[in-house]
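Student: I would love a firmer grasp of how sequence relates to backbone shape in proteins. I am handing you a single protein, as its sequence and its fold in token form. I am told such tokens are a discrete way to write the fold. I hope you can help me see how the letters and the tokens relate. Take your time, and here it is.
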Amino acid sequence: MASSEMMADGVCCSADELVGLYRRLARFPVPRSAHIRHQKKGKEKSWRNIYTEWTQRDVERGESVMFCRHYQVHGNSAIEMETNSEDEATELHGQLWRRVAPSGSQTAILRKVPTKGGDDKNFLEVWSQSCKETCVDLLGLDKHGKVYDDDHFGCLSWSHSEKHLLYVAERRVPKAPSLFGSAVTSRTDGDECPPKGDKFVFQKDWGEGLVGKINGVLCVLDIQSCTVKILEGVPHGVCPGQALWACGDEGVLFVGWYRDPWPLGLKYCSNRRSDLFFLNFETETCEVLGSGGGSVWAPRLSPDGRHLAFLRALAGSTHGQCAELRLIEWESKVQKVIVDIVNQPADAFAFPGLFAFSLPYRCWASDSRRLLCHTAWRSKQVLVVLDTETGVVNRLTTGGSWRLLDVDGKDLVIAASSSPNTPWTLSVGLLPARGAEGSMIWLSLDAAQPFAEIEWMVIPLQPPPAEDNQAYPGIKYEAILLAPSPSAMQKFPLVVYPHGGPHSVFSTEWMTYPAMLCLVRCVVLLVNYRGSCGFGQDSISSLLGNIGTQDVLDVQRAVEAACQRDDVDVRNIFLLGGSHGGFLGCHLIGQFPERFRACVLRNPVIDLPSLAIVSDIPDWASVESGQEYDGTCALSEELLGAMRSKSPIVHASKIVTPTLLLVGQEDKRVPCSQATALYRLLLARGTPARMVLYPEDNHSLAKVDVEADAFLNIILWFGKHLLQPPLWSLALDPPSHPRT
């Protein structure tokens, strides 16, 4: 069969048709942020402007673009609210951060502007409602390096006086002189130059997704004088981020991650040792507010300035843990746990604990008592409101999955929602009074029509007694199933898709790859095996030391459950997975070599002992193998043996399943040497194999051109290895599904 075609029941689906499908689905945007502002009083009704930002794939340009849309909300109560779109979408160029001043009268924008020489410039702009008031070339001031624009360290925060802006940038390090240059030992600006011979000294950054970020500094822009000051007093060996102004601008609050002795990879890892710090301007001291040796993130001050909320988990354990919500009473600095860790929820409807890895910039209710956030709740992402006095958690949403975007000073909430067959849309609602949160009414800002060709459901699963974890018994798990709308006597290929992590989760939200697979007439099974987020801390802990067995058997049980459906062609079962999902895919084709027709692995974990040496998170292999990580000594024979026994490469000699490897050459998390090792073994054994290497992408393989190419390769690989005759036909003319 030609690589550009798939044959099924006389229907030819060419690569061009697949590209057309990708183009159609790629245009559905994803909401990035929102801000409610400018509440004004009219003659009869109050009204608010809502500014929203979205990202969208631009296939022709091969990049992700960002645009904004404006809405208006009228009305004084949930019952009488009305909405309308104020204008059409407008593309934004180079915007990294956007933050509205507390009064709403000014907006700060951090912008990246490319230059002819190839180096980007960072401009910090201040806009009034009528024009750009201030524009500062931050790098031109030569106070620091590039500004941090990531979600881990980055921030842009207005002072309460609205005279200063706070952000984080890379510390400026003077270039070391050449060994053969003149003996310059100091600079006229007072900075000491590194000694000769230090020109090529290695500096460790924060790993995957944070390459080039080594040691940040807190920076303050004086808007009137257009000068930048570097805040001194941050403890040595601490990298600051997520900073905000303390009440009354008496100082700065920030999260500080400890670099010493070695900064482990931070992205997707909420288990890195960090503390909450208060840099006091009056006393010129930096106080640790205390996390108890844990990992903290997302500090948020209440509107009245009396309480500081933040999230905390254990440091040095697994990523993706259940988190605590903690509260500091600002005057007394007394700290207490508001929402504790939930080990195992009582039932499928009970709160499973906080699995929230970020908080919106504004998430407090106007009463300074309740806090809103989104969190994984089994296989859904839901909005919850947390009472910081009683610790009571109330759920605000049902159906699909939700993300909180903003809460204004009058308790108007804006959130985004979607489902596996419905792209993202926005809704607003007024937060009811305490105790009545269950009556919250949502009003849609823009409707997205569901794809009639896709049906979905959540399948509850439980391991049989022989596979129950004796240390953590009774843990259940789930799978999300997407299926083509049924037709009489039709059977479809099954694509099994376990998530990566392993401590992450598939939510019932719009995801491009599963939707595309369903539209080419596949049943798609997204497996949230034991160890996934959103099912309580015990589920997370149960997987430690059991990777390669417990998770593999969970996926296989999910496959067996799906195969009971009348619309599944049991002769055509395929595997797709990335990172730890690739680890599981490789295990499955090794442990069940005759079960799967073909397999696609994206940046897969293949061999834990070698991964522990080359990955930016070397602790991962030890912890997931059930061992403690010790960075002070070489791996012991015992630990190496434990890692090797759990590695899918031990089953490589049994693999006969045709395997496609999709690999990012710049991957720091699971370097491409992992996939290369498997590829070499498969070729040596004569197993059909193909490896596609993307030279400028990393672990996520999220660049638009890479994602598009990967999708095409996945479909063509599965199509090439179909056992005929299945029903394998592209939904050639899916409806346009315009937003209304």
Remarks:
- Residues 216 and 739 are 42 Å apart (CA to CA).
- The radius of gyration is 26 Å.
- Confidence is low (pLDDT under 50) at residues 1-12, 185-190, 725-740.
- Residues 5-22+451-607+647-720 form a domain with the Rossmann fold fold (CATH 3.40.50.1820).
